[in-house]
Structures are given as structure tokens and as C-alpha cells.
Amino acid sequence: MLFIALAKFKKSLSKEVVAENLKDIEAETKGQVRYLGIYWTLGKYDTVVLFEAPNEKVAMNMALKRLDRMEIDTLVAVPADEGSPAGPA
Question: Looking at residue 42, what is its pLDDT?
């Protein structure tokens, strides 16, 4: 399954906060989460992450690990050709 995570850091962004997050990402890539893209953004969110996980439970656990340092909105992403009202092409 494909997911999009929109995150806003609760703490001031420092080298330590970034390092802690990178440590989590490295550990997760050895497990069931595959990161497809991580982007710094301007506006409401600090970062947008595109990732794959086998199910919603794994995606939820990824987000829950970080709740002490960031607010995260996680969305299930469905490719447009699979999710159109008219059905698959």
C-alpha cells in the first residue's frame, strides 16, 4: 500500500531532532516500510513523505513512533488509474 505522510515538527528543528528522525527511518527501511521520497516543504507542513507499507497498521505504527516530536497526517494514496470513479482503465 502507498501512503503520504504530512508532518509538522513540534520541537524546534535542530541537528539532534533531524538525527533522531533519520535513525528511525534507517531502522524502518530494514523492516516493512519502504521510503519512496522525503521532501522538505514550505507552508503548513515541514515535510512530506511518500512511503510503502504492507498495511495501515504498519503505517500507523510508523507515525505513532514520532508523535512526541511531530504532528503527522497520514493519507492512503491510490494511483489515479486505479481509483477513478469510472474504475480501472
Answer: 95
